[in-house]
Design goal:
Blueprint: E1 3-8, H1 14-26, E2 30-35, H2 37-47, H3 51-61, E3 65-68, E4 86-92, H4 94-101, H5 108-118, E5 122-127, H6 134-145, E6 149-150, H7 164-178
Length: about 190
């Protein structure tokens, strides 16, 4: 069974993380979820979800999800010997991006990203910020040079989206494509 860690920070765009987690679980992928404190606050604000209830419902429906404590550096995922397949930071705040790009492991999310880097595992950063300054771009470039996928939360329009869900599904579908996970969340370009 594939194991994927999803980190949710305080950047706007938490609907992408909600949909991604639900899509991973539907596909039987063991999903570790790490919220920053602001990640929880922003998701609750943007989606009107009660995060604790939502996570409880997911745990009742699926036996392959684990909510991780951001402060627990003794978690299994904090170790290189724990074999997860990928880490997705979605949405990724510029503060978390800076911490990851500079090797700071002050919490579990940054530590897991550091483990992905040192163990040569898939790390996908989904920034959701605009405009970007030179420091943001340099931090992304630094990670890209290390093999990290920088996948901005920028929806396409060639699939002729009609709803907000269509725009969200495009970005989530691109993340799944990047992880080689089959999906039909958006119509692929055929020319």
């Amino acid at each position: 069974m594939k194991k994927i860690v999803v980190g949710i920070t305080g950047a706007s765009g938490s609907i992408y993380a909600k949909v991604l987690i639900e899509e991973l679980l539907k596909r039987g992928i063991y999903t570790h979820v790490i919220f920053t404190d602001n990640g929880k606050k922003v998701m609750q604000y943007e989606t009107s979800l009660d995060i604790e209830k939502w996570m409880k419902l997911l745990k009742e429906k699926y036996n392959h999800i684990k909510a991780e404590d951001i402060n627990n550096l003794f978690s299994g995922v904090a170790s290189g010997s724990y074999k997860f397949d990928a880490v997705i930071v979605l949405p990724c705040s510029m503060g978390t991006l800076a911490e990851i790009s500079n090797g700071l492991s002050k919490n579990l999310l940054c530590r897991v990203a550091d483990v992905a880097l040192k163990e040569n595992r898939k790390l996908v950063i989904v920034p959701r910020e605009t405009p970007l300054n030179a420091i943001h771009l340099e931090n992304m470039l630094k990670l890209s040079k290390l093999g990290v996928t920088i996948l901005p939360a920028i929806p396409g329009f060639y699939h002729k989206p009609e709803t907000l869900d269509d725009l969200v599904n495009f970005v989530v579908g691109k993340i799944l494509d990047n992880l080689s996970i089959e999906n039909e969340l958006f119509k692929k370009w055929e020319g």
